[in-house]
User: Fold this.
Amino acid sequence: MEPTIELSAIVPVTGRYDDVAELYGLYKKGLEDTGKSYEIIYVVDGEYPEVMDVLKRLVAEGERVKIIKLARWFGEATALTIGIQHSSGNILLTLPAYQQVEASEIPRLVERLRDCDMVIARRWPRKDSILNRIQSGVFHMLLNPVSEFKFHDIGCGVRVFKNLVAKEINIYGDQHRFLPILAHKYGFRVLEVDAAQSKMDIPSRIYSPGIYVRRILDIFSIFFLVKFTKKPLRFFGILGSSVFTAGFLILLYLLYTKLFQGVALGDRPILLLGTLLIVLGVQVFAIGLLGEIIIFTHAKDIKEYTIDQVIN
Amino acid sequence: MKDLSIIAPLYNEEECVRFLYEAIVKVVDPLQLDHEILFVDDGSKDGTFRVARELAERDKRLRVIRFRRNFGQTPAMAAGFDLARGKILVTMDGDLQNDPEDIPRFMVKIGEGFDIVCGWREKRQDKLVTRKIPSVIANWLIGKVTRVPIRDNGCSLKAYRREVIQKIPLYSEMHRFIPAMASIAGSRVAQIPVRHHARKYGKSKYGLSRIYKVLLDLLMIKTVVSFSSRPMLWFGSMASLAAIGSLLPLAYSIVVVERTEGVSIVVPIGVAMLLGALSIFLLFAGAIGELVYKTGNLKMHTLAGLRASFTGFETLPKEE
Assistant:
């Protein structure tokens, strides 16, 4: 009879990874120190033959690792979701496949879950390069105004949370990064806990330009998810009507110069700008209305609240 | 299944909870109905939940739902509707401004065969400039736009037949539009005057800032109730407007500019092309709208099917 598992550690392997066997050893040590019964689940997101070889060897050596291999690359959020579906612990712990936080910090992080629903590690004090810190600083500066919660290190993959948090929140695409923000939005208590940064995490990283564009788009999408999910017209309506008004004012001005100062309309390129703004305004507004139709026709799937408890 | 559920959302109403509970019990107990009271604590930061829990421990007919955080009045009501067990659901404010004494009259109206009974505050005890005047304008606008003249959409004291309210989508700040939407969908709506008391405890949670929200919500409700079932028609008519708008400068450039020396053709042609593009965009938006409506799980006709006999607007009494 297997002992019931209290803690499920999920390691998504997607893109970046460090020496698998070494990291497994570190994580295992950290998990054992928590004093809880645990399981480790590796979710291999697509083709990583090297990783699979090491993991298979670990299993052959008698290590109790659960391996889930996805048929192709689906992205980290999907990998995590699948990992969570296959987990059986009440406490979930996500760990990156590379060293971010010293594995010895795991017991302390798990311990802190006592008085909240989600603990996210914050690499602090930061020992890595100025470049990394600037990148992260700028990202959070942009993110925090939309997240309604002051996060310092949303990029850290080490997170401990109760199973029910995962049940309430669906993530997809790149949203794993924002799990804490969504958790906070759904009313769960989120706590940021300082944890020692791993030495392996220190070298500077410069990403391809595409990654930076994606991060900006992430902020945009989280902005929608947090603020305007159920009222698209509030956002698009204001934006659209402001643009429309700007265009309208330009046309009014043109009409004035035409009627009272006799300036020919056909010679004024600003007429194009005015028309363009009106066109854009109408388009943005129309998108907002479409959004409303989408929300309305799918309203049955929308539950806008989470219940903490019901008495009687 | 119980006969009656009374739903009151509470947000930071520590002082009111007990009085509210006692006032409701005093009115409902003599009715001899199998009833329940639902208090929805919308993430209060004060002792609201503690007081409500103490009351619920002594009275099993009081149920307390506690949200994880503050989600707003519509979600609080939606939660009440989702968890209620009654055949008739009555909603009211948690701040004692509504009077539970009015509840029996709501029950009578439901008994007469109405699906929704809305209260309207006869002598409203609120600030004139920041509350009453905006409310009169908003109600008039909502009435114009939805063509359902509800006197007081903002009054929380309402009674619903369970089958009706559970089919109506509730999200964002939709609770304001339930009667209008239900009426369009063919439900029979009655309106009765109710008492209204000045706020004794706590602070009002509304301000003038919601005017622009109400305006956009109006457009939203117009869109969803009138056009969501035939988006192509509506986007298509906007597209035709844009098409006409693009033909005018085109005609101008062909007729006028061609015959006049030294006048540039670029700008009017540019305007024509922009409006032409808008026209095509709107047509495509309409097509997407059709797709959305087709794949969505809420159809206007399921709402309209709430009543076998569609009675339209004439069931609304003009005056009570």
Remarks:
- The CA atoms of residues 23 and 39 of chain B lie 14 Å apart.
- DSSP finds eleven helices and seven strands in chain B.
